[in-house]
Design brief:
Layout (H helix, E strand, L loop, with lengths): L12 H27 L6 H20 L11 H25 L8 H31 L5 E7 L1 H13 L5 E8 L28 E5 L5 H10 L6 E4 L12 E5 L2 E5 L8 H35 L5 E7 L5 E7 L23 H8 L7 H7 L3 E3 L4 E2 H7 L15 E3 L1 H4 L8 H13 L3 H14 L8
Parallel strand pairs: 1-2, 1-3, 3-4, 9-11
Antiparallel strand pairs: 5-6, 7-8, 7-10
Helix pairs in contact: 1-2, 1-4, 2-3, 3-4, 7-8, 7-9
């Protein structure tokens, strides 16, 4: 049996139709099942049957608009699942609007409509969750695969080739490699490839052609495009961005202009709301639980040395904006009259009680107040003093990028031991890794690890 996936669906024309019909069938079955759940009766009344037909028609129109039937070969399936949920949420909204303006909203159960759409989304995702692993197995066995020709410099081509070798389930086979320029890396010695003169017309019929060249070789990319003017293959450009420091890089569409994001904060849209809500909820709970401990520490600070309980210090936070960080005071009030210096945490003059709360990180507890009022996050890069930011931003590559998210009480660097007087460049690497890989799940992981290994550390100070 042969498979050809050069259609928009990624599975061939017959499968494309089958997937659409399956989604319509899912909507019908979910509607019946929701009716049984709501009314404990499988004998659906006529008006609900008509509503079911309208829902099926809406689904056949709306779902393709969310690009659910394009090829998802090699792409993140989590994004597909999100698109399915958003699509069915939109269909539910359309149904509600239709029922409202037709004056029929009181004739239908809102619980039924919501249950119907939620079940439809879950079933559509479940079917795809079953189908994709099966398709991957077929691709591993040689079916439903695409041939790819790579054109570019040796370093970029071998990167693409090795990646496709490591992930055979995506279904791409490299048929030819055409090297442009000199193979200065000498990395393709174990692979058979052809050297083609730039400008030669490509007459082969690979399903796809990938141009693998650095961004700086834009003129060469345009020449290769001219050579492919008579080709019916899908042509894609894989820019070599290895010389860039990339943070959350992706393709963005702004005002119908496509742009390659090189360094962008993950704190946009829904992410900001989720992280802010998580921070404030957890900070409220934690402050309530630790209030007796904070009271005892405050008394200890007051009795151990004269001066205020809290120590306020200007730090640089999100987007480079300064804020006052709160700590329990662990040093005499006049200790910084002679100026401030980077490092030397162990040599700083501390009260006996101050030494205890610093070594156990208890002096950091008031920062949950910073989190509650929105200056900080529970998890994020540790903030630094303004004077040191001005010093380090010119000395350490990527230093200012750590301010693309809110500063945190704890972070990826801290749980990995990079705190206090440790290597600052290593800490920045950890901070940038956190920003690049941020997720709510990662925040919970860091919080969990902080509880067990982050408070008491030899570098605390």
């Amino acid at each position: 049996m042969s498979f050809n996936d050069r259609t928009i669906s990624g599975f061939g024309p017959y499968t494309h139709v089958f997937v659409r019909m399956t989604d319509i069938l899912v909507v019908a079955l979910a509607g019946w099942f929701a009716y049984w759940i709501r009314f404990n009766n499988i004998d659906m009344t006529e008006r609900y049957q008509w509503a079911l037909v309208v829902g099926m028609l809406l689904s056949s129109i709306v779902l393709p608009r969310f690009k659910l039937y394009q090829s998802w070969r090699g792409k993140l399936r989590v994004i597909l699942a999100m698109k399915v949920f958003i699509a069915f949420s939109f269909i539910a909204s359309l149904l509600s609007v239709i029922l409202y303006f037709s004056g029929k909203s009181l004739d239908f159960s809102r619980i039924w409509v919501m249950t119907w759409m939620v079940l439809s989304a879950f079933l559509a995702i479940a079917i795809r969750g079953i189908a994709y692993p099966f398709i991957n197995i077929l691709r591993m066995k040689g079916a439903n695969r695409k041939s790819v020709m790579l054109i570019g410099d040796a370093h970029s081509c071998i990167t693409a080739y090795e990646h496709l070798q490591r992930v055979p389930s995506v279904g791409f086979d490299v048929s030819r490699i055409s090297i442009v320029g000199v193979d200065k890396y000498n990395e393709l010695s174990n692979i058979e490839y052809d050297h083609h003169i730039l400008g030669e017309t490509i007459e082969h019929h690979e399903a796809e052609v990938w141009i693998c060249l650095p961004v700086s070789e834009g003129a060469t990319v345009r020449e290769i495009q001219k050579d492919l003017i008579f080709s019916t293959s899908n042509v894609r450009y894989m820019p070599n961005l290895s010389d860039f420091r990339l943070i959350n890089h992706r393709i963005s569409n702004v005002a119908d202009l496509y742009m390659l994001d090189l360094s962008c904060s993950p704190m946009t849209g829904w992410n900001v709301l989720c992280k802010s809500a998580l921070d404030r909820i957890l900070a409220s709970i934690i402050l309530l639980l630790i209030s007796p401990i904070m009271l005892c520490i405050a008394i200890g600070v007051k009795l151990s040395s004269p001066g205020p309980v809290f120590y306020r210090q200007e730090r640089v936070g999100w987007n480079g904006k300064p804020f006052d960080i709160l700590k329990f005071r662990s040093m005499p009030t006049d200790v910084e009259n002679m100026g401030v210096h980077w490092g030397g945490a162990r040599s700083k003059q501390l009260s006996r009680f101050g030494k205890f709360i610093r070594s156990t990180s208890l002096d950091e507890l008031p920062q949950f107040i910073n989190v509650f009022i929105g200056n900080m996050s529970i998890v994020g890069p540790r903030p630094e003093r303004t004077v040191f930011v001005e010093k380090f931003k010119s000395e350490i590559p990527g230093y200012m990028q750590k301010h693309m998210v809110k500063a945190g009480i704890t972070g990826w660097a801290q749980i990995n031991g990079w705190r206090g007087d440790t290597d600052l460049e290593k800490r920045i690497e950890c901070d940038l890794w956190y920003i690049e890989n941020w997720s709510i799940a990662l925040d919970f992981k860091i919080i969990f690890m902080t509880v067990f290994k982050g408070f008491i550390h030899k570098n605390a100070g």
